[in-house]
Amino acid sequence: AARPPRELETVLGWADTLRKLGVRANADTGRDARTAVELGAEGIGLCRTEHQFLGERLPLIRRVILAADPEAERRALDALAEAQREDFRELLRGTGSRPVTVRLLDAPMHEFLPAPGRAGDAEAEERAEELREANPMLGVRGVRLALLHDRLYPAQAEALFGAWLDVRAEGVEPELEVMIPLVSLPEELTAAARQVRAAAEAVAARAGIDVSAVPYRIGSMVETPRAALLAGELARTAQFLSFGTNDLTQLTYGFSRDDVERRVLEPYVAGGLLAASPFERLDADGVGALIEIAVQRARAVRPDIKLGLCGEHGGDPASIELCDRLGLDYVSCSPGRVPVARLAAAQATCAAQEGRTP
Ligand code: PEP
Ligand code: MG
């Protein structure tokens, strides 16, 4: 039902023959993935797994984070992995035999901690208290959490590879891309990659197949300025990189991405200091310059590295034009913006050929 009207499909088809830039979608569920594919997405560029644990499934993560001992953690992880295998099966069925980037958990801790006084017992309360942070967006997020709970990413990765086995039996053959979030040190990536590889080995061994038969790549988000500057080092481990321009913008400017209407930005835009919010339009001189450095450094080390962008900018035409100019392989945006992204990518290619800006 998401399919555009036939006339628009025709125009989008023309755009597809022109554009260089790939267009994928951000989707967390099988349903979103199906919508994205109907709208012309060539794959899923970002599945935010933490979104699969909001609402009533929140205890699945909370039990891992607040586990009293290794045995309680193991039980909590088993429950989490079982739920994830089902989530991933649905996602892979919705995506079909296309690339799908699954990002391992990037939970800012505060979203998963109980309110003070609601942890259950005094010990859990104490553990929760220890984990509370003044700046959770700069705290134990993403890969940092995985290094504290070193069974967490393996549990997710095993669920993903297990789901791949399940859908393969149905004739669906997705290309898996396992993505590590909020990396700022190459060592974080190598540690997480080791966990993912071990998970692939374990699943393959249990299924009696060679691990080389599991089609997966490991990659890193580039969403801290340090990761952008060290993209060459990351590329020694990463087979793909994806620019997370929401965090990269936040961390480059030091503007909070979360504050309602980003009031701090208003005077800048109203006073003409900034033409647009950098969260909406990729900033060519700042965030864009970091991306350009990262692209050069990553390709110098691994010329065939796949490079994408999955922040909100991936659906903004002016930002798409910049992505084309920087030579990225694809952008990934919310499913509803896929048709516009296809058109904008084609416009960018035409403009570049004619030596003008669109
Ligand atoms: C980003 O930071 O741009 C990104 C895609 O990740 P998230 O929005 O989930 O932090
Ligand atoms: Mg991010």
From TrEMBL:
It comes from Actinomadura rudentiformis. Residues 8-349 form the PEP-utilising enzyme C-terminal domain. Substrate binds at R48, R103, E223, G244, T245, N246, D247. The keyword Transferase applies. The active site is at C310. GO terms for molecular function: kinase activity; metal ion binding; pyruvate, phosphate dikinase activity. Keywords: Kinase, Magnesium, Metal-binding, Pyruvate, Transferase. It comes from the Bacteria. Mg(2+) binds at E223, D247. Belongs to the PEP-utilizing enzyme family. This is Pyruvate, phosphate dikinase.
